[in-house]
Write a structure and sequence with these properties.
The complex is a heterodimer of chains A (114) and B (115).
Chain A lengths: L2 E3 L4 E5 L4 E3 L2 E3 L6 E6 L5 E7 L5 E3 L5 E5 L4 E6 L8 E8 L7 E3 L3 E6 L1
Parallel strand pairs in A: 2-12
Antiparallel strand pairs in A: 1-4, 3-9, 5-6, 5-10, 7-8, 8-9, 10-11, 10-12
Chain B lengths: L3 E4 L2 E4 L5 E7 L6 E7 L5 E8 L5 E2 L8 E7 L2 E6 L8 E9 L4 E4 L3 E5 L1
Amino acid sequence: AQSVTQLGSHVSVSEGALVLLRCNYSSSVPPYLFWYVQYPNQGLQLLLKYTSAATLVKGINGFEAEFKKSETSFHLTKPSAHMSDAAEYFCAVRFSGGYNKLIFGAGTRLAVHP
Amino acid sequence: GAVVSQHPSRVICKSGTSVKIECRSLDFQATTMFWYRQFPKQSLMLMATSNEGSKATYEQGVEKDKFLINHASLTLSTLTVTSAHPEDSSFYICSARVPEQESQYFGPGTRLTVL
């Protein structure tokens, strides 16, 4: 069965600092993995996705994530945080059964301080 | 890019009334759409998978008679909350699957408040 664990419900960084949001997954088949961002009272926006191509995936807004099979991880990073990055971030794995459902992690709230 | 809209963005209703929420894919055809519910400061909970021209598939614990889903066309799915009660108050989000991209694109959400 697939599942997603996001370590740290809250992460706080200073503006200009490295952002690291952790995601570990469990899957019995090669996974498709996603990172989404949610701003207050809005839907989710796709940041990036891993679909078994390159292990280092670049997304929008300067974010990237690296798929590490040995660690079953798909951590999200950004070299330099911006105030506008403050939001809720969700990691998700695609369910291997019918209809390609997504299974979401609990989310990580990123705060960026000046 | 793939755009998904939801209407209304916010609705307040009295207990016992029914509320319909629309989810539209604006620039692509979506044979599969998904409906999620999100409680404050929590993750998304999948309620059901909506397939064009067939019955929706509900997740365990979701009342199909309470949350009616209709996917009558390739660009429109509707969620009707029947006989709404205050505990149904939540943020409802839909998404549409873009098969060739292996991705889901999400609508902006609908905030339902039942008084």
